[in-house]
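Structure, all two chains, one model.
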Amino acid sequence: MADETLSREVRGGRKAFFEDPAADRLLAMLTAFLGEHWVLRERVAALEALLIENGVADREALENWEPSGEAAAAAADERAALLRRVLDAGRNVDR
Amino acid sequence: MIDTRLGHGLDIPKSRDERARERFVSSLRAHVLTDVAESMKQAWEKDVLPAFRAEHERDPANAGEVHAALRPHPQFRFYSSLRCTAQEAVWNAVIDELDDDVDAFNRRCAEIAADQSRAQGTLQLDPELELPRSATAVDVHLMPGNYHGSSGSRGSDDAVAGAIYDNGLNVFAFGVMGEHLDDIGMSMSNFVRLRFPDLQPEKILDVGCTIGHNTLPWKRTFPEAEVHGIDIAAPCLRYAHARAQALGETVHFHQQAAEAVDFPDASFDVVFSSMFLHELPLKSIRAFLAEAHRVLRPGGVLINMELPPNSATTPYDGFYLDWDSYYNNEPYYKGFRDQDYKELCTGAGFAEDAFFEAVMPRYGYVDEDVFAGAIAADAAFDEDTGRLSDIIMWYGFGARR
């Protein structure tokens, strides 16, 4: 999808159900986020399947691979950054 | 798991991520309509119904009372908010795919429609046809742009709304509506074939046909018949025509309103509609049924696949179906379900003893003898009647002219 040329707006709108409509919007965002998470999982599954099919790796090797040394430290940093990005997203609400 | 391909020439290119997104939304809908819906029903039975009984010293009398009592409950809010979200996600997933190249899609659709090698269907549009306000005021089913397309029309080959609907319905239906989303048409046409064996239809009319997904099965069930479909939405009709050509079925589509059908008196043997009446104001329903009576030959059959009436469902199941009326931009849905369907038919001129109704399993999912046995029985309603699930039963009603 390059540009949005088709409309996404719904004439007549959609209702909110929680006392604060922000909760409806958050639930929608969380659901979309879950969708994107699934999209990524399907892509990883495709990658793994192709790696195995082409003899680059086998199921056991993929399962047992652990990051070590620098890679492990980098992964820890990325994990911490991910937690900050997601959990601190609403930091200014009602301050 | 759903097949993200529609299996006909109008398939749009979908990337790996787009296909994954469709599968996700389909599963989300299945989850909401099964697990989350079940949790809401339990909240009703365990919390809300006992409180209602304590306060009123009786059970709720109708769907409206269930709705009012359940509305403040957190489980109702969660179910409803998530269902709206899933509904919007259906269309968003598909619109993203189409946005990749709208003009190329419309060109391809026009080319396929023009190819007469596999089928010889026709399309007649009426640019002068005025769309009723009941059809343009809100985007039905929360589908952006509605069936007739957004106000900024894309030109004389615009079929985008049809593509949004076909691809969206495929995601929406999570595999329970047939390979070509045609099980309603398959079921209703085979019902007519088995229930009225003396009827050899020469001409069949599908009213409010949208993309013709339930029109085509009539041609398959009655190959000798001439099959016509009408709708007011030009983008859907362009798509319907191309889709029929791609699938090799000769069907004729016309842009006409159900309230003023432009065919002569006594010119059809079957008039059919599916999931259509509940989108119309009562005045339009009555006008359509009168038109159906007018264009049917003596002995001809009117059959409407619909949601069961509120009088046939428990107050809770009535509430569950009516939800769409309040929250899925289908303002006439409840008003229709509150009607006496027999009275609607007799009011249009059909004889009282000519009325019929039937609850049937999905034709494409059972053996023919199971289907035939089921339709021979009186209509039996339960919580799966008309409710989208993997054990759904279709409901239909009509009358013989």
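Chain B is about 45% helix and 10% strand.
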